[in-house]
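To fix ideas, we give here one paired sequence and structure record:
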Amino acid sequence: MPRSVNSVAARARRKKVLKHTKGYWGRRSNVWTVAKNAFEKGLSYAYRDRKNKKRSFRGLWIQRINAGVRLHGMSYSEFMGQLNKKGIALNRKVLADLAMNHPKAFAEVVKTVKK
């Protein structure tokens, strides 16, 4: 019996990958095997970096809070320790936004923590 090949599905699968690799440099955009490898590697980077993005933003928020708190004569660790001791439930994202965009409101939070 002759071999049966579903060329319609195979072509559709290849077109899908080549559509995603549009804009890649050189052979990565139009040669099937190279494009497939580039696309799969890109997906693995995307998965990894969705996790790393959270890590990076937490570090950025900590830096911004630290910079804002040092203007008021405290360190980041002192500030966070006092904040938890006082039972003020503000997360780092909100505190960083206050420190950057609303310095007066952040100063009030620091003043409350210092008391």
The radius of gyration is 26 Å. The chain has one domain: 7-114. The chain has a mean pLDDT of 94. Residues 32-70 form the longest helix (39 residues).
